């Protein structure tokens, strides 16, 4: 019970932490998402005020106000009264400044024309006074785009403090933009709403924390007891008992967890089988096909058509006698590592090592339908890898080497052979002997890859080959045709 209590506490804290974290993240994301909408709403109200004024201003009359002596004209005061009237009529936002501006010869410098602020106020901008704008200011954007524009974030000015601004274009009778109406408002309502949202978020977090603790404690209490069985089972599996099973006592989530645990141990048992029986001599693709149906005849042995590949380093025994044992082992491991990688890449099965020789089977324990092609492609890739490895050895001052490869196709017997102490998946039969003899003949005919007639018939469409001889091989009375593989044809599908 002590073990369960500790786990229950951790589960309670973890579950509560997850709920709290999710709540905090959700509230925070909601808060962040609400700010742009709030700014957009506030800016929309400012744009509405600016656009309302701009549509009532006669653009031709406004353009004439830029000249000297027009500050005291009726048109000037009419526009000023219009600005004040719209500001006072607006009840949604508190407007601080309302004004009109016109462009100057400098595209980034605009001049004030009519300011709704009283002339006696220190914040009044007289006609003709100018202000420089950066490229993203709403005044420039409204003139350039020809539509009302509002700030998307609060700007802080040294002389006026934080403000949100909007501007709408003034057009003359020809439709040209001759000025803008500017509306500036303090963001007090936005700031107040932000405070409200923060306070609401804190309250929600406090409530969520309480609910999370209560819910996590309840869940932890319900889960703890059945998990004891899983803990015991975990220790058993950790000790190596992959046949241990948990009793399934319910059909709820905990029962499903027990079933999943049993399925997991069965999977581990199969993976262990893969490691012990297949991991060293078959590719993962082949292993998965066999393990998908572990009751196949493969375990008992079977007769099947397969392609056998033998490769051998020429003169390796003589070369190894001139080297230290550590060097021989290191070079042989480097060579064999590259060869086995290529065999696995082409979904072949590593049958065995015979000194520096390699025997591989294509088409067993399962056939992929193009066993001869994959064997020949693997042989060509092995020769290319051997050439690269030979170049590296010779560049470092070491003695070079060459390899010979023989390939034959026929019906063989394959299966696990040996005793309970040591099993080996292998292929036996006359086709195996012929493949070995073909590899040996590569020395006599000074070739790199020799294949039999049976293999040639299956790969002639993808490999460029030439007939070498029609000869007898040891253990066979009838002569056989042997072919040298020159290369894989360009464009041959893999």
Descriptive tags:
8-stranded mixed beta sheet, alpha+beta, 494 residues, 12 helices
How would you portray this structure in words?
The protein is an alpha+beta fold and 494 residues long. 49% of the residues lie in helices and 22% in strands. It is built from 12 helices and 15 strands. The protein has helices spanning 2-56, 59-64, 74-89, 138-145, 188-238, 253-278, 284-291, 316-321, 325-345, 371-395, 430-444, 453-459; strands spanning 97-103, 109-115, 130-132, 149-150, 155-157, 161-171, 177-185, 302-313, 349-354, 357-362, 403-418, 423-428, 449-452, 463-471, 480-488. Helix 1 (2-56) runs antiparallel to helix 3 (74-89), helix 1 packs antiparallel against helix 5 (188-238) and helix 5 packs across helix 6. The longest helix has 55 residues, at 2-56. The model has no long low-confidence stretch (mean pLDDT 80).
Shape: elongated
Helix content: 40-55%
Q: Could you give the count of β-strands?
A: 15
Count of DSSP helices? 12
Whole-angstrom Rg: 43 Å
Mean pLDDT: 80
Hey, roughly how much beta strand do the residues contain? 15-25%
Query: N-to-C terminal Cα separation, in Å?
Result: 61 Å
Can you give me a brief rundown of this structure?
By secondary structure, this protein is α+β, with helices and mostly antiparallel strands. The protein has helices spanning 2-56, 59-64, 74-89, 138-145, 188-238, 253-278, 284-291, 316-321, 325-345, 371-395, 430-444, 453-459, and strands at residues 97-103, 109-115, 130-132, 149-150, 155-157, 161-171, 177-185, 302-313, 349-354, 357-362, 403-418, 423-428, 449-452, 463-471, 480-488. The chain contains twelve helices and 15 strands.
